[in-house]
Each structure stands twice: as structure tokens, then as C-alpha cells.
Specification:
The relative contact order is 0.10. The protein has two domains: 204 residues, Iron/manganese superoxide dismutase, C-terminal domain (minor pseudopilin epsh fold, 3-Layer(bab) Sandwich); 80 residues, no CATH class. The chain is elongated. It is built from twelve helices and five strands. It is mainly alpha-helical. The N terminus is likely disordered. The longest helix is centred in the N-terminal third of the chain and has 23 residues. Helix 4 packs across helix 8, helix 5 runs antiparallel to helix 7 and helix 10 packs antiparallel against helix 11. The structure holds fe (ii) ion. The site of fe (ii) ion (FE2) has 7 residues, from helix 1.
Length: 311
């Protein structure tokens, strides 16, 4: 081992190596949905194997100190002989680390906050979302994962094979369900659908919400602070709620057909659509909506002046 003084040369110091994180709950905490025996094999044995192989692959290389997530996001930059081992084993480490932190006893139900709004925006309602998770999980041929991901503008579902990570496709994974047989076979044998339902009963949606909140997004503060006059009262776009949007739609509808305001009909409809969107997504105000909806709505409403390029 190189002396500690040579820190810069010490890139493969054992202290920097990956390790399996402790479970944030006892092995039997997720029973009856996920058995203690499954957790012991899955967490203690399988995850450890990924960590051991990842460390062996990177030991002594210039990437030994690189963040696991950064390695997965830049697989193409790795030499070919290392790339597959990183994809499989660093991928296995990162995927499982998120997996343990995405479950909890008494989990399940549905998320709240902006994440629920984003899910409703993408899937219509939470039931359709869950059905899509089930279908995606069943569609993985062989071993892999189904993920809820975020591309910075919206959420959607993707699947990956083996231990491939959505990070390698430039996507932020919010939560993933492991559909390798090692995740369920001891308890559910070949009944993957039963396991998927069981997993939905232990999801820690608060953890997923926190990941959603942390995804970098386009700054829409300029749009949210733009002045809008609702029934003669000045407010800002971000503070508009359902009632204000409906009021504005009604006021503009009354003006329809008035010569100088040729576009008033379409803008009235856009205010109605905004009211419906706020309602459907359970958003108190425009500021609670996701960035892409805020931008498209502001464009339709001419809150962003037509023809003006975005900030
Ligand atoms: Fe697994």
C-alpha cells in the first residue's frame, strides 16, 4: 500500500472502494411482502457480489475514485475491456443501493406533492401508472428492471436488461423494481406478477418524491413572476389557482368576437385547460406544476409574449 502522504497516487485505496450499504430496516421488516430469507440472499449475497466484482474491476485503474453514478453516465468513455464489467457490476451496485432505499415497512399507497402531479400528467391517474409499472415489469424478458425515470422535463417508465442503468441513457432513475429472479424466486417462484404487486405495497414514495425534487430542472422563476391581471386584480402567474384560471376563462369568453381581440377564444380555452390541469394534478397553484407544463401553459396564455424566445 502506498503511504498516506501520496494521496493523489492512492486512487485505488481500499477506503474508496464501493461497499454494500446497511439496510435501513431489519431483514424481516418487509414481511409478508418480501421475505426475510429473500432479503438475506438478495442484499447480503447478491449485492455483495456486485460490489466485490466492481471493486476488482476498478482496482488500480484511474477510475477507482470516480463516483459510481458518473461511471454509469459515461460508459462510452471507458475502455472496452472495462466497460461491460462496469455496466454489470457498478450498475448492480447503484441499482441495488437505490432499491433498498426505495422500500419501507408500511410503504405503498401513492406519492404526494409535485411527483403525484407529474405522474398524473404523464399517465392520467395513479391507477394507470401502476398498471403501466406492472405491464413494464412483466415485459422484461429474462433479468432486468422497470424504472420510473425523469428526463428533466417529465416522468415516464422504461425497462432495462441485466444491470443496465437509466443513467447510461442520460435519464434520472426515480425508483426501480428489480425483476431478476433472485429478487423474488425464493418466495414467489415464477409468479413475477404477484411479486410486483407485493413490491408496490412496500414502496417508500417519500424517498421517491425526494429524488424527484432533486432532479435539476429548467429555471421557470421568470415565468412564474410575470404579472397577470385576473378580473382587474394584478397577480403573478405562479400564484394563479383553479378559481383564478376559471375566472379568467369566463371573462375572456365574454369578450369573444370583439374585433381587436382575435385570439381571445383560444386564450380563453387555454385558461380553461390550465384550470383542468391544476385540478387533475391536485396542484394548488401554477407554481406547483412541473416546468414543461408551466412553459407550455404560459406560451398558450401569452404570458410569454408570442414570438419571444424563451429565457
Ligand atoms: Fe437484484
Amino acid at each position: 500500500m502506498v503511504g498516506e502522504m501520496n494521496g493523489a497516487l492512492n486512487s485505488h485505496d481500499v477506503a474508496m472502494a464501493f461497499s454494500v450499504p446497511d439496510l435501513p430496516y431489519p431483514h424481516d421488516a418487509l414481511e409478508p411482502h418480501i421475505s426475510a430469507e429473500t432479503m438475506r440472499f438478495h442484499h447480503d449475497k447478491h449485492h455483495q457480489a456486485y460490489v466485490d466484482k466492481a471493486n476488482a474491476a476498478l482496482d488500480g485503474t484511474q477510475w477507482a475514485d470516480t463516483r459510481a453514478e458518473d461511471l454509469l453516465a459515461a460508459l462510452d468513455e471507458l475502455p472496452e475491456d472495462l466497460r461491460d464489467r462496469v455496466r454489470d457490476n457498478v450498475g448492480g451496485h447503484v441499482n441495488h443501493t437505490m432499491f433498498w432505499a426505495s422500500m419501507k415497512p408500511d410503504g405503498g399507497g401513492q406519492p404526494g406533492g409535485k411527483l403525484l402531479g407529474a405522474i398524473k400528467g404523464a399517465f392520467g391517474n395513479f391507477k394507470v401508472f401502476k398498471d403501466t409499472v406492472r405491464a413494464a415489469s412483466m415485459s422484461v424478458f429474462g433479468s432486468g428492471w422497470a424504472w420510473l425515470v425523469d428526463d428533466g422535463t417529465r416522468v415516464f417508465i422504461v425497462t432495462t436488461t441485466n444491470q443496465d442503468s437509466p443513467l447510461s441513457d442520460g435519464l434520472t432513475p426515480l425508483v426501480g423494481i428489480d425483476v431478476w429472479e433472485h429478487a423474488y424466486y425464493l418466495q414467489y417462484e415464477n409468479r413475477r406478477a404477484e411479486y410486483v404487486d407485493a413490491w408496490l405495497s412496500v414502496v417508500d414514495w417519500e424517498a421517491v418524491e425526494a429524488r424527484y425534487e432533486a432532479v435539476p430542472r429548467q429555471d421557470v422563476s421568470d415565468i412564474l413572476s410575470r404579472g397577470v391581471s385576473i378580473a382587474g386584480v394584478e397577480t403573478v402567474f405562479g400564484e394563479i389557482d383553479i378559481d383564478a384560471a376559471r375566472t379568467q376563462a369566463a371573462e375572456l369568453k365574454a369578450l369573444q368576437g370583439w374585433g381587436p381581440m382575435a385570439k381571445v377564444g383560444s386564450i380563453a380555452r387555454a385558461w380553461n385547460e390550465l384550470a383542468q390541469t391544476l385540478d387533475k394534478r391536485g396542484a394548488a397553484t401554477v407554481a406547483d406544476l412541473d416546468a414543461s407544463t408551466i412553459i407550455s401553459s404560459a406560451t398558450d396564455l401569452w404570458v410569454i409574449p408570442p414570438g419571444r424566445s424563451m429565457v
